[in-house]
Amino acid sequence: xxxxxxxxxxxxxxxxxxxxxxxxxxxxxxxxxxxxxxxxxxxxxxxxxxxxxxxxxxxxxxxxxxxxxxxxxxxxxxxxxxxxxxxxxxxxxxxxxxxxxxxxxxxxxxxxxxxxxxxxxxxxxxxxxxxxxxxxxxxxxxxxxxxxxxxxxxxxxxxxxxxxxxx
Length: 167
Prior knowledge:
By secondary structure, this protein is mainly alpha-helical. The chain is 69% helix and 8% strand. The protein has four helices and four strands; from the N terminus they run αααββββα. The strands form two sheets. It has a two-stranded antiparallel ribbon with strand order 1-2. It is elongated and about 75 Å long.
């Protein structure tokens, strides 16, 4: 008779390295979408255009040694510095939501790896140069293998998603 197959439990269905890559891709997707929807691109472009215009006018005033114009431009630059706070706020808003969701993913991954909740066959992976490493083992400085694997997957997936969504 044939060998009895051990039934697969729920956590054995997908290898842990694939779970990390899937979470990294999901993180890349929602962070790209949130950033695209919550960032006011027109306001950012308007501010950048204003700053570029001030730089050009300042350079032109320097070239013709126009001290009065330089003084007026510096006053305008001081006013524009107040706008910079508003721009930081526009860029910070999506970051709060992205970090909130990402922290939850990190906490779950940390619990899974450091809490001993991995299956017996999910001890780590083989990495170029480093060889076979465990998920808890530091791989890049003090960063554990699972964090490095997550970051690499997240960066790669985010680039692909941004390209696909034309962001």
